[in-house]
Design brief:
354 residues; 2 domains; 35% helix; two-stranded antiparallel sheet; alpha/beta; 14 helices; Spore Coat Polysaccharide Biosynthesis Protein SpsA, Chain A; Arc Repressor Mutant, subunit A
C-alpha cells in the first residue's frame, strides 16, 4: 500500500464550522442481550434515551451537528428506523389527516438543525474499511471519529485545539481505564499491590475511542481495496510514521462492554438525566477557593463552568433547559460580579479554578 510522504504533514488550520463527526455504529460484537433480544449498543436506553443520542448531543454542544453514521451488521436497520422517527420523538407536532396527510413540528427541540447521514459501510467490514467508506459522505476535514458504544465527557473544543496545534495527521484521546472487579496490580516480585484497581498497561492509558483525523490519515493509511481494522495496520503505520498524537482525557469515561457496565450507568443516571449532567452542575469555583466566585449563585456557577468548557450560549441553554435569553442574563450578572469583560476572560478564570 502506498503510504503518506515521509516529510512532516501540516494540515490546514480551519476556521469556520466545527468538524463533522463519523460514528461507528452496529458492527460485529456491538450488541448486548437485553430481555432475550440482541440490542445494538447505540440503541441501549440510558437515562430514557438511546446511547447514540447522548453521544451526538455531546458533540452538538460543541457545535458539531453534522453526523455520518457508519452502519454495519443486522442492527443497522434498527438504527435507521429510530432516526427516521427521532424528530417526532423529541418534539410536539400537529398531524393533518386526510388523503394528503402532513406533519408540522411545533417549536424547537434539542436535535433541531442536525444533519445525519446513515451510510451502509459493509455488513461485516472492519472498522478501518467502514471509516474509509463513510469518509465519502463527510463535507469537510478534519473529522472526529468515535465509537457508538461508550460515554465520555471529553472537552471537544480542547481536543480539536490540541489536534490543530501539533500538526500531525491524527489524534487519539486516551485515559486511565476504569477499574474492573478482579483487576490485579502486581509489583516486580509478583506481590499484589492492588485488587479491583486499574489494570496494568505500559503507560497506564488506553484509547477511549475518540479520534480527530485529517483526510490524509484516512485516505493515506486505510487501503481502498482491502478489509482492515483501524486499530491494526492503519494505526500501527501512523505510529511508525510519527503521525499519531495522544490527547490525555482526565474526565469521566465509561465503556459499555458488558451488561454490568450498562446496569451500573443506568443506576447512576435516573430517567431524563443528561449523561454529562455533572459538567452542568459542577462548581469548579470551590476547588481553588477564588474569592470572587463565592459571589455567584449556584445557577451562575453552572453557567460559568460551561463557559469554561467552551460551550456557546445556545448549547448552555440546551444543557440547562432554559431560554438563551436567560443564559445571557446570567452572563451579564456574572461579568458584573466578577469584574470580567469577555467570555475569554471568564473561561480563563474558570479553568484556573479547576
Amino acid at each position: 500500500m502506498e503510504r503518506a510522504e515521509t516529510t512532516r504533514y501540516r494540515p490546514p488550520v480551519p476556521d469556520g464550522p466545527a468538524p463533522p463527526v463519523v460514528l461507528l455504529c452496529g458492527g460485529a460484537g456491538d450488541y448486548i442481550a437485553e430481555s432475550g433480544t440482541a440490542v445494538p449498543k447505540p440503541l441501549l436506553r440510558i437515562a430514557g434515551r438511546p446511547l447514540l443520542v447522548h453521544i451526538m448531543r455531546q458533540f452538538a454542544d460543541y457545535g458539531s451537528t453534522e453526523f455520518v453514521l457508519a452502519l454495519a451488521g443486522p442492527g443497522q436497520q434498527q438504527v435507521k428506523d429510530y432516526l427516521l422517527r427521532l424528530e417526532l420523538r423529541s418534539a410536539s407536532f400537529t398531524i393533518h389527516l386526510g388523503s394528503d396527510p402532513t406533519v408540522r413540528i411545533l417549536g424547537e427541540h434539542p436535535e433541531e438543525g442536525w444533519t445525519i447521514t446513515c451510510a451502509d459501510t459493509g455488513e461485516l467490514s472492519g472498522t478501518g474499511t467502514r471509516l474509509r467508506n463513510a469518509a465519502s459522505f463527510v463535507p469537510r476535514w478534519p473529522i472526529i471519529a468515535a465509537y457508538g458504544k461508550g460515554l465520555a465527557d471529553v472537552n471537544v473544543a480542547e481536543l480539536i485545539s490540541f489536534h490543530r496545534a501539533h500538526g500531525r495527521m491524527a489524534t487519539v484521546a486516551v485515559a486511565v481505564p476504569p477499574a474492573r472487579p478482579g483487576d490485579v496490580t502486581l509489583a516486580g516480585d509478583h506481590r499484589v499491590l492492588g485488587f479491583g484497581q486499574h489494570p496494568q498497561t505500559p503507560s497506564g492509558l488506553v484509547s477511549i475511542g475518540f479520534f480527530v483525523l485529517e483526510e490524509a490519515a484516512v485516505k493515506g493509511y486505510i487501503p481502498p481495496d482491502a478489509d482492515v481494522m483501524l486499530e491494526a495496520g492503519p494505526i500501527r503505520d501512523m505510529i511508525a510514521d510519527g503521525e499519531l498524537m495522544a490527547y490525555r482525557h482526565h474526565g469521566r469515561w465509561q465503556p459499555l462492554d458488558t451488561w454490568e457496565d450498562v446496569a451500573a450507568v443506568r443506576r447512576s443516571l435516573p430517567s431524563g438525566t443528561r449523561t454529562d449532567v455533572h459538567v452542568a452542575n459542577g462548581t469548579p469555583a470551590h476547588h481553588n477557593g477564588d474569592g470572587r466566585l463565592s459571589a455567584l449563585t449556584n445557577r451562575e456557577l453552572q453557567v460559568a463552568a460551561l463557559v469554561g468548557n467552551c460551550l456557546t450560549n445556545r448549547a448552555i441553554a440546551r444543557r440547562l433547559s432554559v431560554a438563551e435569553k436567560t443564559v445571557e442574563m446570567h452572563l451579564s450578572n456574572i461579568f458584573r460580579k466578577l469584574t470580567v469583560s469577555s467570555r475569554t476572560e471568564l473561561a480563563a478564570l474558570m479553568i484556573r479554578a479547576q
